[in-house]
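Thread: Newbie trying to understand structure tokens

Hi all, I'm a second-year student working on a class project, and my supervisor (Dr. K.) asked me to get a predicted structure for one chain before our next meeting. I've only ever worked with sequences, so writing a 3D structure as a token string is new to me. If someone could post the tokens and maybe explain what I'm looking at, I'd be very grateful. Here's the chain:
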Amino acid sequence: MNHRTTTASLILAAALALTACSSSDNSDDQAEAKPKASTPKKQTGPTAKQAAAKLADATGVTTLGEPTDNTGSCSNKAVGKEPSPKDCSQLITTDTVSIYEFPTVAVADQWTKTRAKSDKTWRQVGRFALSWAVRDQALTSKERRTELENALRKITES
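---
Reply by user tm_fold:
Sure, no problem. This is what the structure looks like when written as tokens:
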């Protein structure tokens, strides 16, 4: 009986040793296989929030009305999820206009073209997009929209 116990113990020990050596934890392999997201470069120029204040000043008003940070509606990162390279950097919604800030001109272009298929109010200015789709924004005249677009262009070029 002692011989059987010793043999069983040796087999069990060998099995455990082999299992420990061939652990399924391939964390090193997974880290190498998973592409690392590139860190976006620090943007220069105004943020969407700063652009809202500068647009008000540039167009002769004290405010564009009730600025609200709605970044969570266009950014996974802002709501604690895995960031996407297509996330917006910031979204400020006012009574007059929504100002979307994107990490690159290419992302802004993609968002603007996609949204403009169903909402013709979208206009792109560099890495920003302007939209008039919520709140009282529909009341903003076409002339005022063009004025805001041109003012944003001047703000972002300086």
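A couple of things are worth pointing out once you decode it. The first helix runs from residue 2 to 21. DSSP finds five helices and five strands in the chain. Feel free to ask follow-ups in this thread.
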